[in-house]
Model the fold of this input.
Amino acid sequence: MPATTSSYTTPKPVEMDCIYVGTRDGDSAPLVTCEYGDGTVELLDPRLDLANHSPTGFEWGYGGSGPTQLALAIVAHVAGDGHDMRNYLVSEFKVRFVQRIPRDAPSWVLSAKTVWEWVQAEVALSDARDQVLEEIMASCDTAPAG
Done:
């Protein structure tokens, strides 16, 4: 049985040009923008249409609902809404990146290109795991005992 591969689409070039900037101003809610190479700055869409993990918005520096919403927003922005590994990628991105940003950091930056490279690496790793599991299952003797 051939190995299955995950499907994903290449982000639009304008999305790859994005630099995510997270800022925290005292007691105010954290703000995350996407700064494009042409100077355009937009608020990062929290993608509540995909999942509402945090009604209070984005956060970072721990493993809660705000960091999950931020991970979802960035992964969906880079990899697309319908990525077949979205839930896995969001969970991993939160653990590996978002919750590692110091909670009291006044600001941070991350490029969409770096996120895209990480997504590609995670998908390739997942595909390799799936292939090994299929090979194990194919070599497994499943004949009934008798």
